[in-house]
Amino acid sequence: MRLLAYDVGGSAIKHAISDENGNLTDKGSVPNSWDNHADFVEAIGQVFDAAHAQEPVDGVAISSAGELDPYTGSMYSGGALQYNKGTNMIEDVGARVGVPVSLENDGNSALMAEMADGALADATNGMVLVLGTGVGGGVMINRAVYYGSHFHSGNASFLRADLDDPDSSILGFTGGSLGLLKEHASLAGLPEAVSGHDFFALVDAGDPTAVAVLEAYAHRLGSAILNLQAILDMDVVAIGGGISAQASLIDAIRRHTDVVFSKTFVPIPAPQVRACRYRNDANLIGAVRHFLATR
Predict the structure, then answer these.
(1) Is the separation of the CB atoms in 117 and 265 below 8 Å?
(2) CA 278 to chain CA centroid, nearest Å
(3) List of domains in the chain
């Protein structure tokens, strides 16, 4: 079976060819520069046309930002792509490409990739936290994806860090990689944020501003993990997103999670903090696994 997987994000659409085992080839991406759903679907279709012309594609597996129904294809929101709100991704893309289409939320896609043979393979209950533009995620309870009553579970961006100032303290503003880099630019007096690669190069070189920003960032995430653990009682929290490849990030989150949990006046068992195995490929691989599970 030859599948075409898409990872629809706020700034780009990544794509790759996959076999039924999630082995990815022919990776690419296109900038997400459209302002309406029809042009978005056409862009998806053009990538499909090029891949299908080389060798027939048997199905399309989509991982997308936003709250959605993975069974019907209804998009309740578009995440960063609000023009997808109120559409049906499975029907619209299916009509364009003419092969079976599946759809899953990006956080749940990352979760499905890690559940099988990744960071959550040996866990009964756990979560993926994806550090990107905001903080996405997926929740696993008793080895199954937990969708919630409105397909909204796992969206850690909307955790409120300060209950006295809830609207300006949601985790998505400061807990994603974008928030990390913006905070560094502000404190370092830079006109614009450096890349994630350059930021962690500064951390590894011992730059005091970069190190202080990372430590504060890791403490926020440790506090968020405590809040989530108080409700979910998990074995493992897996950290995903491009910056999860940075060993200094994972080390900092582990240390600060330990500190936060050690200071609770009622002991709460701490989950293990791990890096996701599949990192930037998790959404693509999870989308393929969801496609195969729904056939």
Answers:
(1) no
(2) 11
(3) 3-108+281-293 (3.30.420.40), 121-276 (3.30.420.40)
Half-sphere exposure of 295 (CA within 13 A, CB side): 16
pTM of the model: 0.93
Rounded-to-integer distance, Cα 16 and Cα 28, Å: 6
How far apart are alpha carbons 244 and 273 in whole angstroms? 11
Rounded CA-CA distance 294/102 in Å is 8
Residue with token string 């459209």:
34
Looking at the chain, which runs of residues are DSSP E strands? 3-8, 12-18, 24-31, 59-64, 101-105, 126-131, 135-141, 144-146, 236-240, 272-275
**Residue whose tokens read 């991704």:** 89
Closest CA to 278 of 92, 1, 4, 7: 7
Q: Residue 90 in 3-state DSSP?
A: helix
Beta bridge partners of 102: 61
Work out the mean pLDDT of the chain and round it to a whole number.
Answer: 95
- Residue 62 has phi, psi (to 5 degrees) of -115, 130
pLDDT tens digit string along 94-107? 999 999 999 999 99
